[in-house]
Design brief:
MetI-like fold; mainly alpha; globular
Amino acid sequence: MHPMPASHSAPQPLSASVPALRTTTGLLWLLGLFLVWPLLAIAATWFHLDAAGWETLRDMADTVLPRYAATSLWLCLGVGVGVALIGTGAALAVTVFDFPGRRFFEWALLLPLAVPPYVVAYGYTDFLQFSGPLQNALRAALGQEGRMFPEVRNLGGAIWVLSFTLYPYVYLLTRTALAERASSLLDAAALLGATWWRRLWQVALPMARPAIAAGVALALMETLADFGVVSYFGVQSFSAGLYKAWLALDDRYAAAQLATVLLAMVALFLHIEQSAQKRLRFSGRQTASLTKTAKPVLLRGRGLALAWLACAIPLLAGFVLPVLFMLRPLLGEWTQLQLAPFGQWAFNSLRLGLLTAVLASAVAVALGLLVRIRPHGATQWLARAIGLGYAVPGAVVVVGLLLPLDWVRQVWPESPLGALLTATSLGLVWAYLVRFTSVALQSVQSGYSRIPRSLDESAQLLGCHGWALLARVHWPLLRRPVAAAALLVFVDVMKELPATLVLRPFNSDTLAVMAYQLARDERLGEAALPALALVLVGLAPVILLSRTLRSGR
């Protein structure tokens, strides 16, 4: 009989004693290499540039590159200012103040997260364009001809659409920061005689500044990754230019260099977001002992009207009006719609979404267990590398996946790799996993953070190691986080446009692709059905997020 170890002795690393887990570790490292392969391939293009490649770079620097850079910078500047003002104003209204309808707006302001930005763009275009119902009604009422107001499909229209669909990033982080950290300080400022305006300007906003910066950085990463809005509105950003270089000009090295510039901009915003999150956590530790539930300031008169405007305008512009705009052509052309193709599009979307959700969740659980067992060293680097995937635009993932095909053909002309990646769903699922495994990993790691390590130590003392530890101890406590991870990945795959547009196999159109193609062909009545189906699917994670926030009070 072996002696019982002392209760204070640390258990041995599980991966060192379980051969099956060591095998899984090797497989995870191999899978991690596949998930970061697109980034490595894009970086490798700089080592394959010949004289013609450098000439292409010089031509781009003299022609399209300055325009793409200027347009992208103006787009980011406009969206950044927009989401900061809209999200911060709404968060301040529902957190610091009390007014009729506040409870409703707390969760309703998250609804624009359910609507893909390109769907909002289709709705505004159909209603506000020259032949739309609004301008027709104005011409009939005023007896005039011609355009009644400027075209919406331009840079200003893209800034409007992206600002009102991406502001929830700022709203959510700022609201959480104010609710958790600023309550006691606002009460102290009130006791010292500060007016509510001074409390906002000198207490609430400085406390929420890291959260605002993190939210703006997330929104700008989504802006740079967007293809549907900028392509439909004719905005020459890096994302649209990348597709033009790849598909229209058939210049893959030019597309790779544009992808490199786009990646550099994304990396900058990712650094800003991570730095802001660190400051946010430091601020939370500093004020955690002081935080308590503060009573919001009851608003009346002009303040009540301002609060209502700060909450109602984002909800109307980002969710209610776009959905109504898309319902109008759908109901008008309902009898002419062909529902059989819609069923096939929905089946393709569901098939890809479910497959990717299962695979991404399985990888996230295995990697989460590995990080749990080996929380230091190379394992953390692997998790961080995979976690970067969500920040990489879909256009960049496509370029990184397809570029190596040329190198393979030069060495192995009869290689079936090209057919496997483009004629089957393999390449598409690979691209989805590159982008969305990080989403599942974040949810699983959040679940693991709530499991005490003392449970692991007790299980080891009882002889429970490796996969048995996961099955008997971790899994019962991880079911909800894993289900949430699968749901988030499923919805993201359903809405993903750039990667699906390029990598989908023949006759495998999805709801997102058909909504884009039908809207591009000005068949908005037919585009409304798949677009609104995506909105309904997107409501699921919003409801989940709202319930989580309410239960966390």
